[in-house]
Amino acid sequence: MTTNATPRPKVVIIGGGPTGLYAGRTLVEQEVEVILLEKESVPGGLATSHRKQGNFYDMGVHMLHEFDKEIFEDMKGIMGEERLPVQLDAKIRWAGSFYRYPLQFVDMIKGIPPLKLAWCVMGLFGSQFYYKMFPRVPKDAEEALIQLYGNPLYKFFFKDFTERYWGFPTTEISAKFITTKMPRLTAVDVLKKVFAKIGIKPSKVEAVDSALLDETLHYSKTGAEMMPRRLVKTIQDEGGQVLLNREVTTVQLREGRVVSVTARNAETGAEEIYPCDYCISTMPMPWLVQRMDGEVAPEVRESAGFLRYKPITVHGLLVNKPKCLSALYIYYRERIFHRVGDPKNAGLIVTPADHSVLIVETTCEEGDDKWNATDAVRNQIIEDLEIEKICTRDQIVEWHVMHCVTGYPIFRLGFEEHFDRVKAHLGAVTNLRSVGRQGGFTYPNMHGAMRMGANAAKSILEQAKIG
Ligand SMILES: Cc1cc2nc3c(=O)[nH]c(=O)nc-3n(C[C@H](O)[C@H](O)[C@H](O)COP(=O)(O)OP(=O)(O)OC[C@H]3O[C@@H](n4cnc5c(N)ncnc54)[C@H](O)[C@@H]3O)c2cc1C
User: Fold this and answer.
1) Is 279 in the pocket of ligand 1 (CB under 6 A)?
2) Of 49, 68, 230, 364, which has the maximum CB count within 10 A?
3) What is the pTM of this model?
4) How many CA atoms lie within 13 A of 143 on its CB side?
5) Residue 2's pLDDT band (boundaries 50, 70, 90)?
């Protein structure tokens, strides 16, 4: 709580995704004056759903994990009676079979032809042995994957999919992507434990846990939009402002500090200036560099230009079929889409009730055929949906296309030095925090993004000597 002796600082938050909203929530609790500026007409960033002709379509199915207990307990209160707990039920479609997600050892044994399986296990054993004898830091994603899984499994499971997903070879992707983003294969962990018992310890390269087989996720009848909507309310209830349709165009600096932020009001066309004592930015890191006034060294500008994001196009389909998938979502490795979700299975209300909503996710480049959802792309999607027996062309009654230019930060080979340079440049501005998925150029899930928002807020409270 602030006291009479401590004036209430004013904090401008750029971006109303999970990071910005949770930062706002943390600050208003300490009676800090918060103005949150969001460029879109709905809050939530990637983690939202859009209402189209009466139904809600997630920007890629979004469900909350419980991994961060403190955030989860708080969110439970915020989501209230709208929260729908749902058992994780996801699958991977691979080489003609379905596997539970995360991939399990027993499923792998059952699903892979015996000779191929033996080859993969031998490859894994070989790589574990080799990298124990000759440990080395992997030079790119390909080498990291081979260290983790062995050459046969890398070629069988990862190579083609990863390259199709990103649009360039694994040798051009940083190893850091594999160790900080790519979900670990629990099936392989089991084998590695067996090897460890006979003295072959796993290499130091590790992948991350992103989901658990017996996990409970949290969702709502209106999809992902509920969480940001309710977070906005908690901010407003405590006197904070959440202003939508405000794209931040300039961040003004004086003597190395942010003094104000200018936003374009999409409704009136006016430029609005918001003075502030502190600023939390969750907009993409390179955009922030471009939009800060004052001198920027050419090498910082160049590095900002190197940090790019992979856009996504998400197709929301209303389908005249009561149920399309036997899971919440399924990952596909050989199709034009990489994941299809059927959020009705998690409790989404669909109108009419005997229809389903399908969320079909693709990566793309801005302006390419997938981005433009050309007829050829739509036909390919339909063909793949039909092959997978998800639905037929005739059953699709509505088709909505959603985009996000900043779907995934691209950990391109060599990005680290550019990231460090931009981070140092932004870090020199003492009352600014650039955080979140876009602002931190990283891969948190929603709870991780909220944690980043909370931490940014707390560091400002400490700097302002509040709390
Ligand atoms: C397809 C997909 C599915 C996912 N599913 C899950 C899931 O099931 N569970 C989970 O926990 N996580 C999931 N995630 C991750 C989740 O989306 C992110 O963790 C989360 O959205 C990150 O929040 P953020 O606020 O950091 O970034 P964002 O959500 O990207 O929000 C940034 C916000 O800043 C705004 N902004 C940008 N520039 C400006 C500007 N100049 N002025 C004003 N506003 C601006 C944007 O409009 C946006 O609202 C998924 C991600 C993807 C891509």
Assistant:
1) no
2) 49
3) 0.93
4) 15
5) very low
